[in-house]
Amino acid sequence: MFSIPRRWGAGSNYERVPEGPEAQKCNPEKSASFFSRMTYSWFSRIIVLGYKKPLEREDLFELNESDSSYIVCPIFEKQWRKEVLRNQERQEVKASFHKAHARKPSLVYALWNTFKFVLIQVALFRVFADILSFTSPLIMKQMIIFCEHRPDFGWSGYGYALALFVVVFLQTLILQQYQRFNMLTSAKIKTAVIGLIYKKALLLSNVSRKRFSTGEVINLMSADAQQLMDLTANLNLLWSAPFQILMAMSLLWQELGPAVLAGVAVLVFVIPINALAATRVKKLKKSQTKNKDKQIKLLNEILHGIKILKLYTWEPSYKKKIIEIREQELEVQKSAGYLAVFSMLTLTCIPFLVSLVTFGIYFLLDEGNILTATKVFTSMSLFNILRLPLFDLPMVISAVVQTRISLNRLEDFLNTEELHPQNIETNYIGDHAIGFTNASFSWDKTGIPVLKNLNIKIPEGALVAVVGQVGSGKSSVLSAILGEMEKLTGVVQRKGSVAYVAQQAWIQNCILQENILFGSIMQKQFYEQVLEACALLPDLEQLPNGDQTEIGERGVNISGGQKHRVSLARAVYSGADIYLLDDPFAAVDVHVGKQLFEKVIGSSGILKNKTRILVTHNLTLLAQMDLIVVMESGRVAHMGTYQELLSKTRNLTNLLQAFSEREKAHALKRVSVINSRTILKDQILEQNDRPSLDQGKQFSMKKEKIPIGGMKFSIILKYLQAFGWLWVWLSVAAYLGQNLVGIGQNLWLSAWVKEAKHKNEFREWKQIKSNKLNIYGLLGLMQGLFVCSGAYILTRGSLAASRTLHTQLLDNVLHLPLRFFETNPIGQIINRFTKDMFIIDIRFHYYLRTWVNCTLDVIGTVLVIGGALPLFILGVIPLVFLYFTIQRYYVASSRQIRRLAGASRSPIISHFSETLSGVSTIRAFGHEQRFIQQNKEVVNENLVCFYNNVISNRWLSVRLEFLGNLMVFFAALLTVLAGSSIDSAIVGLSISYALNITQSLNFWVRKACEIETNAVSIERVCEYENMDKEAPWIMSKRPPSQWPDKGIVEFINYQARYRDDLGLALQDITFQTHGEEKIGIVGRTGAGKSTLSNCLFRIVERSGGKIIIDGIDISTIGLHDLRGKLNIIPQDPVLFSGTLQMNLDPLDKYSDSELWEVLELCHLKEFVQSLPKKLLHEITEGGENLSVGQRQLVCLARALLRKTKILILDEATASIDFETDNLVQTTIRKEFSDCTILTIAHRLHSIIDSDR
């Protein structure tokens, strides 16, 4: 026989070996020279390459080893474990002193202990940069003094000019090192937190999984971890801003004396107002986070259940729900926007108010005080330095407040309850493979027991069947063996490793071979034997790439039966000791089911020597079992061999006899049934010779499309149209007015200084001084009004743009055909609603505003300096040429790096979402470590792009600021060369403007690039607009309100394919039903049975022929008019989180009495009445707190409510037991007796009563 492949155990070591481009594209940073590292010249090759061609992932430099997720995550996890242990010790100490102690382990302490050394290094860089920023005004002061006095020794002026250049250049180098370390440290913190969230998600107990939905956990990983990263990037401002304010005030004291205290008083007055604003922001952030959670959760469910929405025409209802949440979000955003108006006013007007009050008090203290050029321009430079810390401080305080909310959410999640290892003994070495002794289980410790007093001993190598009615606890027994349930009493023991086949097959988005190997080593011979035994070889022959074909998310491009067989093959190949099989035959036809039993599970199958526990509704298999466990209401009703139970248990005997009689009846009717079905047989069932993947489904998941080339102006135009042209022109006018008034203020001060020199010539100097101050104040007031107007206009316009683009995106997504969702990972779609909409909501309008402001700033600065020093224009021309050259190279590379970074985010969300949906399977196989490693890989890919982006920004900043420094040097040099021909006021004005232009030019280029790269978000949001949509929901031609009244369905030479480049999935189908006729449709897996029902609903459109229902060609009416008049019970029982009532009747059309009536008909009334909240019982995400059988019965109840003339049953009873199936079939025959029924089934008894 074949040897079993090595399993991936929980304790296996995993060593990551770099391969491919990673091994080749080593990072040259460490080997670069000191100068190259300081100026980032080592990165130039990427910039040049990006200019020559669009960059690809393989072109980027890899991370330094210490920055990678493989190093960062384990170190942080170790510190987190230490913090958890320290917290436990503190609790024990407090408890010994009888003191309450509810403190949780602190994420902040764990992060500090992990990153403290690099955070201290970052802080030191910031200290040096801040000190140097105050050196520039002092040198400028000396230059103005030099120009006022003109000493004989003129070389000192050149010395000052050179010193000014050296200082600003040093500041540039140190500040860019600070930014580099700061940004990468913040990214590492985010990486560490994501790694911990992912690991925790694999350990959550069922109670915790109910508390934190998939959407909420994804939001923790994207929004909250991002919030933590953003705060870390600005954390040093908490001390740096007060330090800069103190430094500025002490230097101002030297210039203006006690008058500075008046400025301090203004600051003291403003700080509490900012604190109030921060408190308000905290509340807004909290409500915004809740809204985002709700939206992501609902979107996640909509996208997973999109087929149900389309079949039941529920899109408008769920669209309305999303828009309601979105409107709440926009209300919060509007409030935040109005707070931003205040912030903008603070940023612009506080330095002005401080200077106005300070100058005013300076005059009042002594009439002899005059404003000289030295005092004015040194003071103004210091006031300008004050501007940023004064703006940053309240912002960072607000960010701290917001991040505290995110930290609380993260800590709540990280400290939530995990699965208890003591739920099951896995190191058992006794005689039995599995043993239950007086064991009771619940889904949570405080809940009602689901399984009660289990006493089961399962010998090694036994084949055990677990049978019982829907909701009797069959699947719960398997969950208890896996340790997924909370043990309340007793003992449960398990010996050896486990493989698990879930009732709803979990398939990964990877190639089919990887789905089966599931991390084990390839052993070709054994692998082929598994494929043959699991009846997968005929399918592989039909696949375009055999077992190398990519399977889509949730296995969307394979049939239900194929999913179960792949899931079974995965379990068989794992080589485990115990196999837990949860109804693996439900979705396969009888022939395939028989083969699977004989070749895999039965006494002659591959697993014949293994312990096998099979949950099944197929009672014909019971005779071949070593042990049968009959479950009833969570208890073992009967247990023994087949013969023992037949002799003891009358109920089982009756059930088996009924089943046997049904089989006999089927045999007697077989000939007549086949003869009367000839139309269907010839047209459809002949395809059964091809047990293959539907031809129409031979597609793979599409990778994230990464745009290349420059930004299209049409994208910006689309945003501006959504923004509203009125708001666009008003905001431009407001910002133009703001900049003109700002220039006017400085020119007014310059003129004031000139006149102050000649104050003795003016008799009414006191009056003139007062007038000058009043006009200066008036200009400041005008500037404040322009600032407020601009911020208000921007808020209104950005809200309009956000609302319009989000509504268009949602509308486009809901109108896309189902094949789009089958070929595009859900992570990509959610990414557009989260990350891309966040950029549109918050960032894009900020970048546009900043760019417009910087453009006006630069133009104003060049004009002011050019007016004072005409030769300056000659020096600026070559520098401007260099600016644009650098910009062209940088933008081409940076744009593509950011696009790569955007594309690398989707796999993180997709992998995370996939893991959460298959967490039970992952835990059962013991593959947690392998999936944690995969998470590190996808996070690391994003981190590589982020690293290259950070370095590209630093590369740009060093070069742009160097050119800006040359402008400062050039302006200073011209003032020295001008000699006595230039006034000291002009010197001060020119140099102070030149010092500001460095930052303005840097910001101008950076924001231009930000606009280009972030416009990708608008492009991605609008991308679905131009895709092929479904037919309109409502068309001009509408069917009569009573249509269809007969239920006659006619297929005429009907052909269908899933995609233009694929073969036909249905070929020349021609048949006609009579009114109220019952039609059975059978066929092997992949024969096209479900495709037939998809064509009726126009999920798949025709390639030829037509379908006529009661005389109307269905292609001539709107989709909602068609789908709303058809009824279906689908193969996959999809439920949404919310109440049971909402799941039955989301449109709120029916009364409670009607709901109870259909629940009784579906045999669910007794179960629902036993629930504490009855119809208002909360269904968890995906309906996980109901069994699969119960979910199918809820879907049946939906169909009974929505009674129409035509009903399609698509494997509607595959997951319920024979007895309940019998009752349900009786209900369907009775309630839908006057309807045309098309039944798609694998169980022959489900279609035995069909007319044809």
Summed up, what is this model?
By secondary structure, this protein is α/β, with parallel strands linked by helices.
Tell me what the structure shows.
The chain has 1252 residues and is α/β, with parallel strands linked by helices. The chain is 62% helix and 9% strand. It contains 39 helices and 19 strands. β8 and β9 form a beta hairpin. α6 runs antiparallel to α30 and α27 runs antiparallel to α31. The two termini are 47 Å apart. The N terminus is likely disordered.
Structural class: alpha/beta
Estimate the helix proportion, in percent: 55-70%
Largest sheet: spatial strand order: 5-6-7-3-8-9
Please report the total strand number as a whole number. Answer: 19
Gyration radius, rounded? 36 Å
Low-confidence stretches: 1-24, 659-699, 760-765
User: Helical segment tally?
Assistant: 39
Cα distance spanning the termini: 47 Å
Judging from the principal axes of the Cα atoms, what is the shape? elongated
Q: Report the sheet-strand fraction.
A: 5-15%
Nearest-integer average pLDDT: 79
Q: Summarize the biggest pleated sheet.
A: 6 strands, mixed
